[in-house]
Specification:
There is one protein chain. With 184 residues, the chain is an alpha+beta fold. The protein has one domain. The chain has four helices and eight strands; from the N terminus they run ββββββαββααα. Strands 1, 2, 3, 4, 5, 6, 7 and 8 form an eight-stranded mixed sheet that branches. Strand 5 and strand 6 form a beta hairpin. The longest helix is centred in the last third of the chain and has 23 residues. The structure holds zinc ion.
Amino acid sequence: MFVSHGTDQAFETVRLLRIPAGSSARVTVQSETVEVVRTHWFGRQYACPGDGCPACECYQSRLTCFLVVTVFTGKVWVPNLLELTPAELSRVRFMLEWDAGEIVPGVVLHVSRKSARSGVRVEPQEVEGGQVLRSLSSREVLFNSVCRLLALPSAKEGEMPAAWQDRVRPFLVSRLQLAIEKMG
Ligand SMILES: [Zn+2]
């Protein structure tokens, strides 16, 4: 009989890693790519649909970078989505001498947050120390996890990014319009 052994199972999506103020975590990078999303904040995070976005006319947007990592809980490694600012990601990229757009799985990072208002700070700890799980490195896991976090429909099997954006944009625009009306 086949028994799944925790981290060997296939993951479709992983949840966002929350670092409470004053605490830290040790994570291993699993993604081979980074997903960069323009977002707005109205009490919660919304993806910006770009062209024709009703929020861009009156509110600021910011770029957010996501990658899949595993976190050691003291007993097991748990897969999570790590959210970073572009500035923090480029700092890590510079320190690890990664090429533009490149992410190297297996790097171990120390992730911390000083206060509730400050962003997550990342320091490289080991260049090749972490265990890499093949099932987590695919772009699908990263993409689907970001979609789930931002409450967006996932891409259908074989759907190209441009087709997915065209399908999702009208839905995002009307959701943002509702959110803006609510804000008054
Ligand atoms: Zn926008």
